[in-house]
Amino acid sequence: MLEKAAAAVEDGGPLLDPSTISFRPLIPAAGKMLCLGLNYAEHAAEGGYQRPSWPTIFLRCPGSLTAHGAPILKPIVSEQLDYEAELAVIIGTPIRHATPDEALDAIYGYSCFNDASVRDYQRKTIQWTMGKNFEQSGAFGPMLVTADELPRGAIGLAITCRLNGAVVQQANTREMIFPVAETLSLLSECITLESGDVVVMGTPSGVGHARKPPLWMRDGDVVEVEIEGVGLLRNTIENERRDRGILPKEAA
User: Fold this and answer.
1) Does 15 reside within a domain?
2) Residue 248 forms part of a structural domain
3) Following DSSP, what letter does each residue of 128-189 receive, concatenated?
4) First to last CA, the chain
5) Is 156 exposed, middle or buried (0-12, 13-18, 19+ CB in 10 A)?
6) What is the pLDDT of residues 110-129, one digit of tens each?
7) What is the spatial distance between Cα 203 and Cα 226, in angstroms, rounded to a whole number?
8) H-run or E-run covering 9
9) What distances in angstroms separate CA 144 from CA 87, 193, 200, one per listed residue?
10) 96 is in which domain, residue-wise?
11) From CA 34, how far away is CA 187, in angstroms rounded?
12) Tens digit of pLDDT for each residue in 207-226?
């Protein structure tokens, strides 16, 4: 597949104007989307957590995703919508019981992710699933940068989040507690990581819930996630409507 893509580029085909494109989530329905929490020490500390001794894992469902340029929905039931800039890893080759080097060889590429979180629902139980799976909350894309275009394991990349143009998160992927290679190796002890699976690598400090006063995303806000060498993911926050999706209008 990489060879075909390279050949197409070398053929000098026409470039598309991004402003004319309607994007979809980079992988709309991954077989597995595994997300890390507390993977930067300062972020764990700002939330009142100890440094984890093993990756803290939760799952995201396909219905929770949204695309570059599409809205992130602020849910009707909460005011506590928070941003989280993250690096996404896309698996290219299945692995099980992989060494860290074998795990890195299995990576197809990388992208940007905004793990927008509904904090009050995240904390209703000891599991974070509800707060991490509201509809159209996880922004994913727009670019897929193949692993050969970046430092091995995507180490040493600047990662930034901006809210309405102001920098709210600024870190480097070398600050991860569990780097990409170690994370994939540990996950493969438990499950087979398959082609098209996605692993989202956690967020650095600076999230809204840890600020005083808290900084929540509101209708009309613009949030950007930028990762050095990977790209820029931009979304506008939009209030959820009661008549959206399958909820009947009479429920409004």
Assistant:
1) no
2) no
3) -TGGG-STT-EEE-S--EEGGGSSGGGTT-EEEEEETTEEEEEEEGGGBSS-HHHHHHHHHH
4) 48
5) middle
6) 999 999 999 999 999 999 99
7) 12
8) helix 2-10
9) 11, 18, 14
10) 29-241
11) 9
12) 999 999 999 999 999 999 99
Question: ∠ CA 73-77-80 to the nearest 5 degrees?
Answer: 70
Place of tokens 């727009």: 142
Rounded Cα–Cα distance for residues 63 and 182 (Å): 28
Residue 12 located in a structural domain: no
What is the rounded distance in angstroms from the CA atom of residue 8 to the CA atom of residue 208? 43
SS3 218: coil
Q: How many residues does the chain have?
A: 252
Considering the entire predicted model, what is its pTM? Answer: 0.92
Tell me the C-alpha distance between 242 and 110, whole Å. Answer: 35
Position 17, amino acid = D
Identify which of 211, 207, 210, 239 has the alpha carbon closest to the alpha carbon of residue 225: 207
pLDDT band for 21, please (50, 70, 90 cuts): confident
**Residue recorded with tokens 């429920």:** 251
Q: Answer whether residue 159 is part of any domain.
A: yes
How many domains does the chain contain in total?
1
Give CA–CA dist 237/207, Å, rounded. 16
Six-digit token pair at 168? 């709210």
Q: Give the 3-state secondary structure of residue 45.
A: helix
CATH number of the domain where residue 83 is located? 3.90.850.10
Tell me which residue of 227, 30, 251 sits closest to 143, measured CA to CA: 227
Cα separation, 134 vs 239, in Å, equals 13
- For residue 64, which of 130, 150, 19, 146 has the smallest C-alpha distance? 130
